[in-house]
Amino acid sequence: MKKTLRLLSCLLITGSSLMAQTGYQWKTASSGGYTYKYVTNDPNKARFYQLKNGLTVILSENSKSPSIEYRMAVRAGSNTDPRTNTGLAHYLEHLLFKGTDKFGTMDFAKEKPLLDKIEKLYEQYHATKDPAKRKEIYAEIDQTSGEASNYSIANEYDKMMKSLGGQSTNAHTWYEETVYNEDFPSNATDKFLALQAERFRSPVFRIFHTELEAVYEEKNRGLDDDSWKVSETLSALLYPTHNYGQQTTIGTIEDLKNPSLVEIRKYYNTYYVPNNMAIILAGDFKADEMIKKVDQHFSYMKNKPVALYNPAPEKPLTKIQVAHINGPSAESVRIGYRGYAESTKESMFLDLISSILANGKAGLLDINLNKEQKVLRSGAYYQQMKDYGDFILVATPKQGQTLEDAQQLLMGQIELLKKGEFDESLIRATVANNKLENLQALDDNGARVEDITTAFILNRAEKWDTHLNKNDAMAAVTKKEVVDFANKFFKDNYVVIQKHQGEDTSIVKVEKPAITPVKTNTNEVSVFTKNLLATPSKAIEAKFLDYNKDLSFGKAGIAEVITVQNKENSLFNLSYRFDMGAWNYKKAPYAAQYLAFLSTDKYTAQQISAEFYNIACTYSFNVTNEVTTINISGLQENFDKAVKLVEHIFANCKANEAALAQLKSNLLKARENNKLNKASILSGLTSYAQYGAVNPANFGLSNDEIKNMTSKELLYILHNINNYKHTITYYGPQTTAAFTADIVKTHALPKEFTPAAPAQKFNYAEATGNQVYFANYDMVQSEVRWVRNGGLYHPEEAAKITLFNSYFGGGMGSIVFQTIRESKALAYSTFAVFASPDSKEKQYSMIAYVGSQADKMNEAVAGMNELLNVLPESDKNFASSKYSAMNAIETSRITKNDIIAAYFADKKRGIDHDSRMDEYQALKPLTFAQIQDFHASNVANKPYNYCIVASDKKVKMEDLQKFGTLNTLTLEQVFGY
Predict the structure, then answer these.
(1) Tell me: the pLDDT tens digits for 802-821?
(2) Closest alpha carbon to 277 in 58, 103, 499
(3) Strand duo 618-623 + 628-635: pairing
(4) What is the distance between the alpha carbons of residues 155 and 182, in angstroms, rounded to a whole number?
(5) For 343, which DSSP code?
(6) pTM above 0.85?
(7) In the chain, what are the domains?
(8) What are the pLDDT digits (tens) for 72-106?
(9) Which residues neighbour 605 within 8 Å (Cβ) at sequence distance 6 or greater?
């Protein structure tokens, strides 16, 4: 039965803080000797500079913490890959971490002839077809690479960033972009800019064949990812001509096997030029000083003409295309329409329509499909590229539902849209919620630079005024315009990808070549690095919380109240926090899910969602294992409305037997889907290894218990939740006194709290020798996770653990990453950490991971075991790890609602003050010998549990038995159902 949702006009947003029309106009100004452009009323206060060589520099000041986010954006990605060398832009991204003739090398004069030889050998390899001859050439590449590694310093860039206090070195490549991202403390600005300028001056493509193997592994991970396969197939059909569909970012297997360093260098020289690049910075700096420094460091770059990808327009799609993908994960359907170029009015309409269809609360899919439980889940979104955009609809079918059924339900919502069967107020509510999200994102430097970077890549930077005005432009759109556009756009011009659960017989994995481990020279330092780090930086004073001063404590009736005042804007976040959860009441999580489908005597479930969307507020009821929370957030001006509505819902929700019956069916279907998810399986194996057969991962209701759940049981939990002890927390504009006065009027509390049932306790498994827990899964790779319990939590160990993790296995500069990936090329993804529990009553766990091709598993396990048993020593790595750990604390600023979260986290560990204070003081005197002792006592030569997810067709059981006693678990054992 089709519904037209009528939103209640009494709750429409009228707040001037969100709905005011604001003028955005370009202006030009000069300051500090530089001219820049800016847009009036820009909340980012972004300055747009262009240096004499054409380099774009965009600066956004934000001094709330002593840190800076950086992006180096290049308008070049897989679209500009040569057709004969796909994946080249992505290769280059990896190689921009390898250094130059000044760093990453101990003696470039001796290294260069060997690198030149490797480049020539790859050209021969690229041109040779005979398998035997190729094998011969590759053997010479491997040998010469080993010789060259006598002079290279692996990961010296990452180590420098660590020494500067960087915490998030990374990069990505996509259709029309390659972006390099960092964060760094503001006191390291000069060193950071010197490093980045050198990095892009004249990169050297060293340690290539092991990095190439990492890319092979990345390709194979994609072959194991069904959603990746669906996306590639969808793009190929939406774009039969454009490179969006005809060239994948990671490249074809054939091209991956035949790389050309000559072509990579040519690509770099063509596209990595200043007039095709931008530096974007947001954080703690003065723009006048920063632009001068950037200019000084990057003025060496030379402007060159750039011919970017300029394809012929795609012909209109005039029919429905259907493709089928098989894979081991759960079935789903994805529908795609080809959208329009960036910054067009049509793209703005599609962005708006995606929210009218799906906004998580009151969209047509939210109300008519998700609330009605007509599918397991559904959604819609618009993904914008430069030349076109993808308008996507997705659904996961429920039990007994075909993919065709789910597809028709999605298309049914498109028909409702075309008929205008939605309320016009959805447009205004969408605008209000967008503005609220923008306001919330302003504090985050990462969000700022990401938004600006996307604008640069998509040529929106020069249209920044239009970008800022987008929400106001949306607000001016009428329902008639949306309906008229929908009828023109949504025709039989779409692509359907039906993802079936089954074996994919088309997969051909990238075969591993023979690789001799290269030297990493971990303890060596180039002259450039030595000089860069020799200059002292002005210290940043660490700032710690004082819970007695930073928090206000009070009472509302019998409930404790904790508040932090928001003095910056009109946003609030309210929470009722219960120290109980699913381990106390197994049915509580199901009550929380049931609530979403319930009406009251006043509102339908659909109207409740619409009400919250209309007042730009959000509420959620979350039940975790140990904690339950009711969260309410939004605009303070709508605080009373939101809180009263939540109180009304919990007090007056009523049974819906049809909804419960469908929820049960969906829960059982979701459980079956979990069994098809390799990440869920690995997580379940880990829990089994830590606790044994009865563990947190399989603790819960049985399938029969779910089938027998009643509305009465679930409603009892919902109606009585406020009778259990809870703490009320508030971050918002009101003072504690004003908030307390308000909350006692709206939040119903009993005369005394009902005691919660005792929580389920889980016993940690005793180590009795190496154990292997294996689950079979149809995949190209193997995933291996080491896990062992490490004893009860001790707060005095925090500093050692932080430093050990930084040095040993956390990040690209760590010992594990350098050995497993850089030297031996055994994996794309690998790590090892000594994980701290969140409670004083729980144990630590040593966890290591390698995801590698199945035929590399034995080597990967041996490589990790060697590191677990013998800790390599590198005084330079240790020093940078220590500096990084201390700097992370010095530059961190816990503010706003996070102060409350930090308080509860410390309290759970039995600490009554900011735990970072103790950790920081303990870090200072730590020596490598102490970390070595920690490794020997807690990591080395211990029994481990090997949790392995792989295909039994690709790994041998006799190999697994060499690791330890083999336990092949069924999915029922893993999940408990």
Answers:
(1) 999 999 998 888 999 989 98
(2) 58
(3) antiparallel
(4) 15
(5) T
(6) yes
(7) 9-17+313-443+456-501 (3.30.830.10), 547-746 (3.30.830.10), 771-975 (3.30.830.10)
(8) 999 999 999 999 999 999 999 999 999 999 999 99
(9) 371, 596, 597, 598, 599, 656, 659
